[in-house]
Predict the 3D structure of the following.
Amino acid sequence: MNYAGIDYSLSCPSITISSSADFSKCKTFFYTSKKKLEGKFDHNIYGMMAHPYEHEMERIDHISEWALSVLKKFKVTEVCLEDYAFAAKGRVFLIAENGGLLKWKMWKNNIKYHSVPPTTVKKFYTGRGNSGKDIMHQSFYERTGVKITEVFDLSETDNPVSDIVDSHAMLCYGIDHLFH
């Protein structure tokens, strides 16, 4: 049985899939518009190119179809999905439409999902609910032994580094607290 942790966004969503929290047994996928990040990387990490779009609804449809295809390919039965941040700024309605479309598609495909506040997952993963990307990254390294910044030669605040860390944290939380 496979589970997934999803850090879902408009810019660089990431999905980590496994039946275990052990990162060496996980497969991680992220959606990117950067050609240099397309392909297979160390530690079973895969960058997949975003499709071009002419309208925002087309964009969110592409993102949700990408996510759904990954979940279905690996027969994921349950998902831990990062819920909306209460302090979110900017295009909050588009962000909500993006997340809502994925939830609807998972529901239509009988993939159970749990929405968990970012602060809850951060507290579980690091011990602090207000942890920044640097502390999340440090916890990821302590849990996995993987310096994810070196996989891409990027900083811990760059996409897809922080997205992969967050999707792994979501998976670990789901395995520990939610999945049956």
User: Anything to note?
Assistant: The two ends are 10 Å apart (CA to CA).
